[in-house]
């Protein structure tokens, strides 16, 4: 195959992928609009439509990720364009798994759809979809383990945040269904369960990231902005888990820590990139900017 034929093939595959990605973003957006309608009407059928929309989107989004893997002949999480897609997919998949354990509660899907749609649109509007050779910093066996565990933790924290917000806004008395279902203390326990599940993955992501940094740059920790914010995020979620063991901290203080943890996680994932670029701060993670 000539170089020109290879370029034409790659351009053709990339065109298909971009159309599919736009379709996935559209489906997340439609699910978000259905969520708004559910928020306004509180009709159970609309809530089920929201969940069904996210289920359909997950299937198509899975196909998109498999297609990108085939297209690039490597796992598709080597740049911000790809990791934003992973972030949306993981958040949706984690939410749908958790939602299957709830009794007819659909309202957190409104938040998940909005975050997933925003991630996809940010990727499509601001990132380069070109499949380029891996930079030397990413050519480490630790990198894939680091990314997978980090994004699994992020997805779990997103769902925990959505549950926390819905509990604070729509909580109901025990064993009494509200307009959006049984959003009671049993429902709220999922915030703790999810963070308890995701925290070890975040911990492993930090340690594997340190091992990767040693392979790439010859040192385990350099107080890079990305590394610093990941440690801040870890500390906030550690405080959240600790608060659940203290009686007077279990209610409002733990909710505040969970929400702060979500904000710190977004800062670690995206906010640091903006700050580095805006203020010209030196960073070893410039490949993610």
Task: Output the keywords.
289 residues; mainly alpha; 2 domains; 8 helices; 0% strand
Short description, anyone?
The chain has 289 residues and is an all-alpha fold.
Task: Summarize the structure in words.
With 289 residues, this protein is mainly alpha-helical. The chain has two domains: 132 residues; 156 residues, no CATH class. The chain has eight helices and no strands. The chain is flat. It starts with a helix and ends in a 10-residue tail after the last helix.
Show the helix and strand layout.
Elements: H1 3-41, H2 44-72, H3 80-99, H4 108-126, H5 141-170, H6 185-217, H7 225-243, H8 252-279
Number of helical segments?
Answer: 8
Content-based structural category: mainly alpha
- Describe the sheet with the most strands: none
> What are the secondary-structure elements, in order, as H or E?
HHHHHHHH
Helix content: over 70%
Terminal residue distance:
34 Å
